[in-house]
Amino acid sequence: MTKGLTTHLFKILFCLGALAFSLGCSSDSKKQIPKAIKVSSKKRISNSKLSEKEWLSEYNFFKKPLSDLQPKKGVFAYDLNNALFTDYAFKKRFIFLPDGKKMTYQNEGVLDFEIGSILIKNFYYPKDFNKPMDEIKIIETRLLIKEVDGWKPLNYVWNESQSDAKLNYVGGEVPVSWKNENQVHKSISYGIPNLNECKNCHFKGSEITPIGPTVAQLNKKYSAIKSAQNQLERFQNLGILDLPDSHPSLPKLPIWDDPKTGSIKLRANAYLDANCAHCHREQGSAKNSGLYLTYNETNMRRRGVFKPPVAAGKGSGNLEYSIVPGNPEESILIYRMKNNDPAIRMPEIGRVSAHKEGIALIEQYIRSLADH
Amino acid sequence: MPEYNPERTYLNMEEAILEAFILAKDSSTIQLPEGHYLFSQELSINGKKHLTIKGMGMDKTVLSFKGQTKGAQGLLVSNSQNITLANMTIEDATGDNLKITDCDTVVLRNIRSAWTGKASTENGAYGIYPVLSNNVLIENCVAIGASDAGIYVGQSDQVIIRNNKAFYNVAGIESENSKDVEIYNNEVYENTSGLLIFNLPKLTRYGSKIKAYKNTIYNNNTPNFGVKGSIVSSVPKGTGVVIMATQDVAFYDNTIKNHKTSNLSVVSYEIFAADEDAREEELTDEAQLQGIRSVDSDFRKDSLYNPYPGRIQISQNQFENSYGFPTLTNEYGILMLLKNKRIIPDVVYDGILPKGAKLQDDQHKICLEDNGEINFVYMDAANEFENFSNDLEPFNCKLKMNMTRQ
Questions:
Q1: ipTM topping 0.90
Q2: How open is the CA angle A170-A175-A177, to the nearest 5 degrees?
Q3: Which of A71, B159, B161, B385 lies in disulfide reach of A75, CB 3.0 to 4.6 Å?
Q4: How many folded domains does chain B comprise?
Q5: pTM higher than 0.95, yes or no?
């Protein structure tokens, strides 16, 4: 048809038409958010029946006042070598084990937990980061509950008076402000994930799993415990974990911001593992990207070096590769870590601001890759 | 451009409704109250069985996604079985208003899917969009303003589309790569093109066995506002019905009238592949991820794909045209001006066949019967229109149709 005599004429007519059309129809009105009056439902919308505890206090994890987060018997504090960055939020983590139950050692991946075990993660902000114990505001407490048919995520959002936290499925936004270590005032609109978003990070294959409590992540001294004993040894002494006999050589991740614990490369790998690899792994939700960032991934192409994007859309920022050795500015990895646009930023959920210090480490790492 | 401007007073009950969607259990009902509800994010259902989501009526319960900041769809239902959605309006999603994917047994009833304001390229792609699904019924629905197709069924089997209305879309109703589809009693008007029965290459499955009857299709002359690069962006305005690269189609008892390019066209994929404006490279990544189709010039490499229409029976339809001069905004109109005495054809057949094939071959037959006085055009597009003809006689035949449901 295009070979026909009329094609040329057609193109001219069409282009004129398209021009007139594009002038006449372009409008920004689609982007504007109209006003809406807040209302509540008088009747129940869904007839799905719920059986979850409505308040965090019902679990009996903590002594009173609840907001001190002092664990009761059967609730064990723990910490990780490398935490996921969540807009500078502080976190206090606990494991609840049913009476007489233990965790089971796994050399790789998370420890095994028995049914009834609960992982508890509290997100909070001290008013002044230099006084982390004074005047804190707890935002949310996320639970992962091991049930007969797998892990179930639930989230509890703290009330204004900090007396308790209420079950929340839909997420939301909370204004938070603090003074950082350099006494700079910061404020953000903190995003609480909805239940589907919880699943997004915790899905491995078709199952929900914990991410944090692996041996390599737990293998450290927990500062809040006076004896400064290694966490794994402490768990063994408490009779809730049996370590293999060879435990001096247990796997251990370097700490991303502690140069004493490893080279730039290893610390970068540890940072990327904690912040990206829950999706960027085999069976993770970002497996289609072809970018794999688990600590033990050694293939540099799979780690992003000269790897073109697959389905990044505008997330690529018109850059060609995930990592260009020696050139962080040309690396999609850095572009997406720096960006706060929901369609571009990485990780895509769990932050609204960029992690300056983490970005600095990864930039240093990308520059160092040119030396080889 | 046509406009749709309903009066809206938006209410915000996002948390309660979102919670109902997140917590929906198998064999439950979500009953949405009366009101115009505004949402900042997509509402989705995944992996559910026997779930009903209903409003109080399409004029009473309106779910608006105008200015949404999270997710692309309005409502998204995936990997679910026995799902009924009814009695509501879904409006102004960034991407598709209502998408159903990888589902079995789906009823969509009394749903209006619309983009408000002027028909615009900025509107979302698909209004009512079941894809990769089986056993789908779409009835008493209304689709308005989609920048691709209003009611669009893709890569699905066992589909009924009946008693619906579609207007102000680029394509009113489209059946794409779907099998055992019945399309009847629909009213389709003021789109760019009314009804598309398409089969495209390199998809998970191919379409055939389509019955379209008792539809009223008229005045589909709206300028094309499809996204650049999309396949519908290359469909000329003023085309009532286009049957493309599909086999086993029974098209009967329809009324098709007042189109500026042609009332009914039967064409091969080659005629689209020759259009340089609908190329994949023209589409943005977002559009491709959304499932918007472009022309694939590599289609010959797909050995399972048949790019030529065949076994098409066109019977007892009523064709009319109040327009006396073809539109000159597309090459078909210009061709008719030059070759068809300025008459807008009722039925056009491009006549492109695979090498060595003949018009009389059973698998390529196009039959017209009892359609009254019509202007018929055999384009002979493969040979620079050399044997362009109005002679209906070689096509006056009756096929024994090979349908699963009679």
A1: no
A2: 140
A3: A71
A4: 1
A5: no
